[in-house]
Request: fold
Amino acid sequence: DSDGYGHPGPTHEAIQTLLKILTDEGVEGYWFGANTSVIEKTIKPAIVGQDPFMREKIWQDLMERQRLNLSTLADNILAPIDLALWDLAGRALNQPVYKILGGYRSIVPAYASTMCGDDLQNGLATPQDYAVFAEWAMRRGYQGFKLHTWQPPYAGAPNPKRDIEACAFVRDAVGPDIPCMLDPYHYYDREAALYLAKQLEDLNYYWMEEPMDEHSMSSYIWLCQQTSLPICGPETCEGKMHVRAEWIKHGACDISRAGVSDVGGLTPLMKIVHL
Reply:
């Protein structure tokens, strides 16, 4: 919204870049959020003339170029290229991309995800505010609810006891059967993360995501060994499927998480799905 927060606000217009990949046969593919300068100078010369259906080859080539160009070819820079190529394939075949991926279902359950706690009017200033928001989300038909709790510069944040108070209010509001999740934004140490996990066990929460900084995989291995609560991650670690394979192998998470833009597109995301 206009205050820089992610809570519901009035509808407004927004401007965003749109990447278009055009073939010599006239088929086009699109995606949002492309970096114009990097695409024109680095990516366009590398992919012009290639077969757009050779997505794996193009992705492997761009991934190799990342090694000496990480400052300009981050995963979130490459993601629009890969996603536009998938979009192009769907348009060329007149099929939705989920079917090209080997579709299993045509709909998926959705959970509501909150903004971070704040002190704005109609925001999430108290644990009770989270409960009210959760009730609103349930009336909208959502089948789960995830909290993002207070973080700096909010006064007194982070505070694990206040986070749990919000989680408890939400559980009371939605009842015992709705999956609930907590993402406390990586601010805690081992002691606080374990406190959160044990409290969420009692509240029958579905998972906890990124309670600690993810640079320390050993801290997550330790946490998973101490709690029966599923731990979801990593979210922000660089390294695509390679890092997530290590987390799975060493028991640093119970649920592997990967954002399509964070890992560089659908092509690497599907590699993570198949780990």
Remarks:
- The first helix runs from residue 36 to 47.
